[in-house]
Amino acid sequence: MLEMKVPSPGESITEVEIATWLVNDGDYVEKDQAIAEVDSDKATLELPAEEGGIITLKAEEGDTVEVGQVVCLIDTSAARPEGSAAPSAAAPNPEPVAAPAAPAATTYATGTASPAAKKMMAETGASVAKGTGKDGRITKADVIDAVASMGSSDHGERAQTRKKMSSLRRKLASRLVTVKNETAMLTTFNEVDMKPIFDLRNEYKEEFFEKHGVKLGFMSFFTLATTRALKLYPSTNSMIDGNELVSFDYVDVSVAVSGPKGLMVPVVRNAETLDFAGVENEIGRLAKKVRDGKITVDEMTGGTFTITNGGVFGSMLSTPIINPPQSAILGMHNIIQRPVAVDGEVVIRPMMYVALSYDHRVIDGRESVGTLVAIKEALENPAEVLMEGNVRKALGL
């Protein structure tokens, strides 16, 4: 009998929460099959089976367990049930193809409640005939919906859904409150005329893609403009550690990326040493790992400055909140065609509002405003400021 213990997701993490069991008690599991999703205070990770066999669960969904604690047993001597095949791990998911409607296949999991759902059904007396989980499995959310629908009134359906906040979400909530309460956070704003970047991208994007295999996006311009500004104003690339002020001669840029588990912030290491192709390739690599759920805790820790882009969701202007223990964060927003005055004439230009939130305990007004102005200057004149007058060389063409 194999005892499966909780592995350490990363340095300084001592406990995790069982977010979801992906198998049922008594299932046959294959080696390396994902059997659970666990939440730490920094990321959601999959727990793979160490060997194949019949599994016995030793923890409930929602339980907080310590690193090294036994969460399940696997009977490695048990034979695979007849008629079941090992899951294919190598084949990618094919594109969905339209097909005639057919009744869903019934498996051993159909109508079976997860441990957490079974416990909740016993406590509430709720009855669930059909589940919405994988292969028709009854999940905790199905029971919550059933409980909400047990009562009725003359006011029509007034359902509520309750679920326990994940460890990741609880930690995030705590950190956000801490930032508001323990930092002197202020925000300075400016606007950027994006036409020069638009013109460069339109002229070189196809050749750039053919050469480097990655698109020439906005993030490389913003990242390189930021690393330049932080060299000019090093206090913006500093942070408080106890009674000491720590300044960095390198720039590790945390980049906010939206994934299936929520917003993740992987780090582009030594961004000041990268060129345009290097930044785009690294951000693309990290973003793919976030989307695939493969990002590691180490890849999300240690940043010295953060860039977040609310514009992809349609935000025109916002006040980004500092990513502790960092002292500043740059917020990008959507690009809108607006009338602006250029050389005494009103013209239409693609404009973006930018925001820099900063900890006033570390960064004075002169440095904060200077940092954002330096970023604006580089973005509005990228050929001269970021590319030293040689666009093709800077783009590696």
Walkthrough of the structure:
With about 400 residues, this protein is of the alpha+beta class. It has two domains: about 120 residues, RNA polymerase II/Efflux pump adaptor protein, barrel-sandwich hybrid domain (OB fold (Dihydrolipoamide Acetyltransferase, E2P)), CATH 2.40.50; about 220 residues, 2-Layer Sandwich (Chloramphenicol Acetyltransferase), CATH 3.30.559. Strands 9, 12, 15, 16, 17, 18 and 19 form a seven-stranded mixed β-sheet that branches. Strand 4 and strand 5 form a beta hairpin. The chain starts with a strand and ends with a helix.
Short description, anyone?
The chain has 397 residues and is α+β, with helices and mostly antiparallel strands. It contains nine helices and 19 strands.
> Oligomer, anyone?
single chain
Q: What is the residue-averaged pLDDT? A: 85
Report the CATH architecture of the largest domain: 2-Layer Sandwich
**CATH fold naming of the largest domain:** Chloramphenicol Acetyltransferase
- Distance from first to last alpha carbon: 59 Å
Assigned CATH superfamily of the largest domain: Chloramphenicol acetyltransferase-like domain
Largest sheet: 7 strands, mixed
Class from helix and strand fractions: alpha+beta
The helix fraction, in percent, is 25-40%
Shape: elongated
Strand runs, count: 19
CA gyration radius, whole angstroms: 26 Å
In what range is the share of β-strand residues? 15-25%
User: What string gives the helices and strands in order?
Assistant: EEEEEEEEHHHEHHEEEEEEHEEEEHHH
Number of alpha- plus pi-helical segments: 9
Count of the domains = 2
- Regions with pLDDT < 50 over 5+ consecutive residues? 88-104
The CATH class of the largest domain is identified as Alpha Beta
